[in-house]
């Protein structure tokens, strides 16, 4: 079996680094950002599994970045939070509307059997739950972690990283993470349609939301499952 190349971080701009996602949509593995700071780095999303989180941890060490002190959730969906239990000694931050959702998710009896049973009961869950099964090597010590610190509208961390709630159809707790000194806006999945099992035929991208987020103060716009876009590229997207 050929060796798998280790995950590596690439610097996007200023102190923002990206761990790329998997381009295969069936794997549902998005990018994760690290905002480096000597006071402690900020991790934006946890990875979609403990194994993914450990890959990111190795990449952070290889890049020589300061250890992670804060973990900011862009929203509560599994591919953004299931790696959280592999991040010890970090403060998890998310929008208040996602906290109770994740408490309920934490109470579910996660296992491969449970995933199969859920898909049998609701076949529309198939793509998401099969991706979860592929992501998880095992369930020992796995736990879904709600944010320990919440906010309602905006929150600025000591490192100058800003969290802003935007909501939307994809998830009620969708949050954008802004790094003003680096000119980077991390959008998560905020402008995506609802998840596949909840999506209606006419649901699409919320380009009006993107339009409202564009600003000359930010040169880069990053969603979790696509390539980073410059301000000019983002403007072309919303005008097409």
UniProtKB/TrEMBL annotation:
Annotated source species: Plantactinospora soyae
Membrane-spanning intervals of the chain: none
Domain Metallo-beta-lactamase: residue ranges: 29-225
Pfam families tied to this protein: Lactamase_B
Origin: domain of life: Bacteria
Full protein name: Glyoxylase-like metal-dependent hydrolase (Beta-lactamase superfamily II)
GO terms for MF: hydrolase activity
Phylogenetic classification of the source organism: Bacteria, Bacillati, Actinomycetota, Actinomycetes, Micromonosporales
Entry-linked InterPro entries: Metallo-B-lactamas, NDM-1-like, RibonucZ/Hydroxyglut_hydro
Alphabetically ordered keywords of this record: Hydrolase
Entries under PANTHER family matching the protein: METALLO-BETA-LACTAMASE DOMAIN-CONTAINING
